[in-house]
Amino acid sequence: EIVLTQSPGTLSLSPGERATLSCRASQSVSSTYLAWYQQKPGQAPRLLIYGASSRATGIPDRFSGSGSGTDFSLTISRLEPEDFAVYYCQQYGPAGLTFGGGTEVEIK
Amino acid sequence: EVQLLESGGGLVQPGGSLRLSCAASGFTFSNSAMGWVRQAPGKGLEWVSAISASGGSTYYADSVKGRFSISRDKSKDMLYLQLNSLRADDTAVFFCATFQGASTLEPFAYWGQGTPVTVSS
Asked: How far apart are the first and last CA of chain A?
């Protein structure tokens, strides 16, 4: 099983600031199979990024993904009030599906 | 508009069973692989099970293998998850989700709002 480790656990930032979230895999993951999701309290997750860097339908361009191999990142260029949430990375390759433990982006 | 509506959750005793259902609409159900993801209270997401678009292939997390069973009814656009031999650590909200395409080698494109399962005596 591929283990995904997200860091930091919590990111305290102010609206307008830049957020960079990390996702590290225990073994190499094809960038084809790496996604990011956003989840707000009491809501279902929402797909943000797939294929490591492709934005899902309707996702604003302030969200961007990058990385390869074992190191991936999600960047929010300028935080909007609605961006404060928990973010999960996921790999969905042939070895099975796993999620990272999540990073909470909270208002400072 | 894609809609996924889960039902069937509730309170069950350890060792008991439940059948979760997910009603799908707004997309071509028979062309989409489907899955279940759960979230224990205050915890992160855990993939549970998946089924191919055809229904011919099913997949399970090690934590539920042999206890849970996924199935789909194309005539009704319904997805199911049979939960047997339930344990306290199965307590979670269970989300139904559709993969982005026919394969499970895709991200989860759409999610339902979830149905809670509580395993307690």
From this structure: 35
Residues of B near A (CB-CB distance < 8 A)? Answer: 35, 37, 44-47, 50, 59, 61-62, 95, 100, 104-114
Q: Which H helix or E strand runs over A101?
A: none
Residue-level pLDDT, tens digit, chain A, 108 residues? 999 999 999 999 999 999 999 999 999 999 899 999 999 999 999 999 999 999 999 999 999 999 999 999 999 999 999 999 999 999 998 888 999 999 999 999
Please indicate whether, in this complex, the C-beta atoms of A44 and B112 are within 8 angstroms of each other: yes
Residues B88-108: what's their mean pLDDT? Answer: 95
Q: Which chain A residue shows the shortest CA-CA distance from B6?
A: A44
CA distance A13 to A103: 13
Q: Indicate yes or no: CB of B105 within 8 angstroms of CB of A94.
A: yes
Burial B100-110 (b: 16+ CB within 10 A, else e): beeebbbbbbb
Contact A99 B112 (CB under 8 A): no
Q: Are B120 and B88 in contact (CB under 8 A)?
A: yes
